[in-house]
Write a structure and sequence with these properties.
- This protein has 205 residues and is an all-alpha fold.
- The protein is built from nine helices and no strands.
- Helix 5 packs antiparallel against helix 6.
- The radius of gyration is 18 Å and the shape is globular.
- The chain starts with a helix and ends in an 11-residue tail after the last helix.
Length: 205
């Protein structure tokens, strides 16, 4: 968890040091507000998961967070509210939401899978943040790609599986959990590769 905290603090410090990258209007768009709501829900989710073990309430908060993830992308695309801030904030919110929730509820014998995913997510975060700082004109592209979207869907499926296991609605299946973790790792690698800017070859006369 310390590495996750370091990632978040690094982002916040760099954003404060680079105010020209964002405008006040960016914070006021509905998609970005929804992303911030997803992050803000984490303390409540943490309380339900750790202090009282209110799994059903935690599951409802998780479903609400997943719904905001669907809505922010839909609104951004269809209401012309796409911003560079949103391209960085939305995947950051996804990473924090998934890593924090899965860390709390994951079975102890799968922590090594979680560590692998954390390492890959940190690399993906670094690529996305560099693209944000350079406005997508440097080494990495800014914005989501199909592999990142598939990764997010798989992450939500994995956390949903873990919740249903905690609620006693399904039987424990280490094979299914391992497959979902492996898919998350694979999509994370593909997403990192997909964010790399490949210079276009110059046309010869």
């Amino acid at each position: 968890m310390k590495k996750l905290q370091t990632i978040i603090l690094t982002l916040w410090q760099d954003l404060k040091d680079s105010p020209s990258l964002i405008s006040r209007q960016d914070w006021k768009t509905w998609p970005n507000c929804l992303s911030l709501t997803r992050i803000s829900a984490l303390p409540l989710l943490y309380i339900f998961l750790t202090y009282n073990n209110h799994w059903w309430l935690a599951f409802i908060v998780f479903l609400g967070g997943a719904l905001t993830d669907v809505l922010d992308g839909f609104i951004a695309r269809n209401c012309n509210q796409t911003t560079n801030l949103g391209k960085a904030l939305d995947p950051l919110a996804d990473k924090i939401f998934f890593l924090t929730t899965s860390y709390i509820i994951i079975p102890a014998n799968f922590t090594w899978w979680w560590t692998i995913v954390l390492e890959l997510e940190s690399k993906l975060f670094t690529a996305g943040f560099i693209a944000f700082i350079q406005k997508g004109q440097g080494i990495f592209k800014l914005g989501a790609n199909i592999h990142g979207k598939n990764k997010m869907i798989t992450e939500m499926a994995l956390v949903g599986e873990l919740f249903l296991l905690k609620l006693g609605l399904i039987k424990y299946s280490p094979v299914v959990i391992s497959i979902l973790f492996a898919m998350v790792a694979i999509y994370a690698v593909l997403s990192i590769i997909g964010h790399i800017n490949i210079p276009k070859k110059m046309n010869k006369p």
